[in-house]
Write a structure and sequence with these properties.
Length: 313
Amino acid sequence: MKKLLTTALVTGVLATAASVAAAGEIAVIVKTTNSSFWQNVNKGASAAIEGISEHTMTFNGPAAESAIADQVALVENAINRGVAAIVLAPSDPEALAPVVRRAFEAGIPVAIIDSGLAEGSEQYFQAFLSTDNCAAGQQAAQMMIDNAGSTGKVAVMSYVAGVGSEIGRVGCFVDYIGENSDIEIVGPLYSQSQMATALNQTTDLLAANDDLIGIFGANEPTAIGMGRAIEQAGKAGQLVAIGFDGNADLQDMVNSGTLLATAVQGSFQMGELGVNAVADILAGTPVTDFIDTGVVMVTKENIDTPVAQNVLY
């Protein structure tokens, strides 16, 4: 999916959007506002809008990533009030697809960030900005094998089953481990992106599997809960623990040695480049329909380097 937006259907819709909404609101709607990751997306979006005088920006999201109906309602509200464009991080690939189609039919361009929509929905949005989650999962898996070995048990602590980012990130981690080692996978367990749930799940898992050689926490609240459980069990440094995302808690866990590494997405870039993409579309400037926002494996050795500091938050 790396082509310029040249189809007649998309061109017609964008021409309508540009004429109807030469200036107006760009609605940034994320999975939840209660997360440092998504607040860093907000920082990037806010930085972008400072350089775009003809548009304003709003930032919103439900209280929790699992509140999918609330996110659908936020998108519906944005369409109903006639926003110029939408930047959306869909919490559920199936549930958000119909409302994105409705935005398309209303002539409102949409940039999808972080997680994809259901297969067959590509015609209804104009750009997709994301970490290559499969590649990120494979990087974490290779680091796991390199540091934990190729035999034993590795647990996978995931977040919301079926979310686009989870399918790539966790699926490719598990597949890569299976194809390149004799490691036995325990899980995945799903925290619903709740730190306390991940903490309790990891505590129980550690108690039941004292022979674990490694553990992978696949998003911010899950990795924080996982790390705290490891610390409370007195097992920091006794197994290879790899997290995902890069807030202050996870940075502290990398520095303390609780986590060997955390895979950090360009969350700031998702917001910044997402807003810039829809602004370009509204201005009639072609954009590519996939923009890779990247991932950095942050370790104690590189955490203070510019490449890591540019993605941490």
